[in-house]
Amino acid sequence: MKRTPITLRGAEKLRVELRKLKSEDRPSVIRAIAEARSHGDLSENAEYAAAREQQGFIEGRIREIEFRLAHAHVIDPADLPDTGKVVFGATVELEDEKGAQVTYQIVGDDEADIREGLISVNSPIARALVGKEAGDEVEVAAPGGTKSYEVVDVRYPGGTKSYEVVDVRYL
After folding, report:
1. Entry pTM
2. What's the pLDDT tens digit per position in 86-124?
3. CATH 1.10.287.180 domain position(s) in the chain
4. Can you tell me the distance from the alpha carbon of 156 to that of 136, in angstroms, rounded to the nearest whole number?
5. Which residues contact 23 (CB under 8 A, 6 or more apart)?
6. Which of 18, 27, 110, 122 is the most exposed, fewest CB within 10 Å of its CB?
7. What local confidence, expressed as pLDDT, does residue 161 receive?
């Protein structure tokens, strides 16, 4: 089975969400369903229908997070060896052809957030950057056309550890 890379921070965010769904949201929706049932006729009970719909969403999200964590290859960027090349977890400073600078960290799909400078390892820009070094030129096919960047800096602390999450069903 293929493992999906995720940073240690991203895996922890998923674990926190999973704990909240199981310990707070699930019991809350179960209470809401019981309360709605106590009002009688379920066929015309909007509260009951809404609570059941919410329960379906919560159960689906629980299954999705458990699957993602079970198939995750958790990587702590603080433990990456300093090779000077762009790899998963690295923070990359780029300069475009107009001289504007941007900084991105390459992360897993679940934790990507462009507003925070976190880009998915599967995004076109990350795929173009992987393996590059400071000083390299990169061409990225974007929806608005091809953009050119220069890799100004690649940062990450040294080390060589990576961790795998094996079973999260009992969190």
Report:
1. 0.75
2. 999 999 999 988 889 999 999 999 899 999 999 999 999
3. 4-74
4. 18
5. none
6. 27
7. 38
> What is the per-residue pLDDT for 157?
59
Burial degree of 99 (CB within 10 A; 0-12, 13-18, 19+): exposed
Sign of CA dihedral 38, 40, 42, 46: negative
Other C-beta atoms lying within 10 Å of the C-beta of residue 138: 16
- 106 SS3 class: strand
SS3 call for 12: helix
**CA atoms of 112 and 99, how far apart (whole Å):** 25
DSSP labels, 107-151: E-GGG-BGGGTEEETTSHHHHHHTT-BTT-EEEEEETTEEEEEEE
Q: Output the CA torsion 92→97→101→103 (10° steps).
A: -30
Provide the CATH topology of domain 4-74.
Helix Hairpins (1.10.287)
CA 37 – CA 104 distance, rounded (Å): 50
Reading the block at residue 171, the tokens are 């969190």
